[in-house]
Design brief:
Pfam families: ABC_tran, oligo_HPY. It is found in: Cell inner membrane. Keywords: ATP-binding, Cell inner membrane, Cell membrane, Membrane, Nucleotide-binding, Translocase, Transport. By secondary structure, the protein is an alpha/beta fold. The chain is built from twelve helices and twelve strands. The chain has helices spanning 44-52, 78-84, 106-116, 122-135, 152-164, 182-199, 210-216, 234-239, 244-252, 292-296, 318-325, 328-332, and strands at residues 2-13, 16-28, 33-37, 59-68, 71-72, 89-92, 170-174, 202-207, 219-224, 227-233, 302-305, 308-310. The strands form two sheets. The protein has an eight-stranded mixed β-sheet, sandwiched between helices. Strands 2-1-4-5 form a four-stranded antiparallel β-sheet. The longest helix has 18 residues, at 182-199. It starts with a strand and ends with a helix. Bound molecules: iron/sulfur cluster (SF4).
Length: 335
């Protein structure tokens, strides 16, 4: 469905280029949910937005390819890209208030997309809006409400309805449940997963929360400091992570199924300044397993097992590192 290869995205900051995404890639097979996970500033949102080519004015795609349906989105003229938005690729933002206009009734906003982008008549658009509301579990009698009359969960469901309006092939969801409490998070994720299966959608789920990918995604791509550091099917990633950052992320988030119970161990420190990234592995300053080679030479992403890509010099020792990483004191020693 989608194949991102060697993508680099740079922001112009003053007279400098800050490369927020650097030579990174991943694939989204048809009909799957792929999680893009990492902490704030790792480049996941920049990467996701680049897929729809809705990036900040001071950002540019500095290299690479976004192959979608036989076309390279990175090189597509804006008019052609615009024609793909909503119809082929749509976007669910983090806060539904970013996609719903507070001064218009929700029905009007959905119908506007259906009529302007889908060419539907008023009557057909009204019927489709009601159908979409039923699909996402909102009573169609609420279509005439304004966004402020909805709860946070309902607003997010309405944003999902809006994204699905024209039957896109690919939906990019940017932290779609971050602003919601854990019970509503589960309901929305269950709904998204059900719709994804029923409609055969491909979804990219951008999140900082590894428990969200554990609950929802078929494959997971872990990003750190602008680079993909691990990429494989979610079950393997959670049971046998090969990258120390993934091991640390697992300890840092509660399990959605246990509704937030359990002891959490954070990864001490913060990601490097991307205006001046370090030599060697970008995670070395926070990694309890960093060796001399890690500080001098950047590890290249390698497919070490079929479908399991990792960028770590010590990936061959992962079984031992996982044992160490499961102990809180391993991470506390880095604080
Ligand atoms: S390359 Fe070295 S510093 Fe980087 S994650 Fe692997 S062990 Fe840690």
């Amino acid at each position: 469905m989608l194949s991102v290869k060697d993508l680099s995205i740079a922001y112009k900051v003053g007279s400098n280029d800050v490369v927020a995404v650097s030579n990174s890639g991943f694939d989204v097979p048809k009909g799957t949910i792929v999680g893009l996970v990492g902490e704030s500033g790792c480049g996941k949102t920049t990467m996701a937005r680049a897929l729809t080519r809705v990036i900040a004015d001071n950002a540019r795609i500095a290299g690479g390819e976004i192959a979608f349906d036989g076309q390279d989105l990175a090189a597509l003229p804006e008019a052609k890209m615009n024609a793909l938005r909503w119809r082929d690729i749509s976007f669910i933002p983090q806060s539904a208030m970013n996609s719903l206009d507070p001064v218009y009734r929700v029905e009007y906003q959905i119908m506007e997309v259906l009529r302007d982008r889908g060419g539907m008549t008023r009557r057909a658009a009204r019927a489709r809006a009601a159908e979409l509301f039923e699909m996402v579990g909102i009573d169609k009698g609420r279509l005439r409400d304004f966004p402020h009359q909805f709860s946070g969960g309902m607003r997010q469901r309405a944003a999902i309805a809006l994204a699905l309006a024209l039957n896109p092939k690919l939906v990019v969801a940017d932290e779609p449940v971050t602003a919601l409490d854990v019970i509503i998070q589960r309901q929305i994720l269950d709904q998204l997963r059900t719709l994804q299966r029923e409609l055969g959608l491909s979804v990219i789920m951008v999140t900082h929360d590894i428990s969200v990918v554990a609950y929802t995604c078929d494959r997971t791509v872990v990003m750190y400091a602008g680079k993909v550091v691990e990429d494989c099917d979610t079950a393997t990633l959670l049971n046998r992570p090969l990258h120390p950052y993934t091991m640390g992320l697992k300890n840092a988030f509660p399990d959605l199924k246990s509704a937030g119970s359990g002891v959490l161990t954070p990864i001490a420190g913060s990601p490097p300044d991307l205006a001046d990234p370090p030599d060697g592995c970008r995670f070395a300053a926070r990694c309890p397993f960093a060796a001399e080679l890690c500080r001098s030479t950047e590890p290249a992403p390698l497919e070490v097992e079929k479908g399991h890509i990792v960028a770590c010099h010590r990936a061959s020792e992962a079984a031992q590192l996982r044992l160490e990483a499961s102990k809180p004191q391993t991470w506390e020693a880095m604080a």
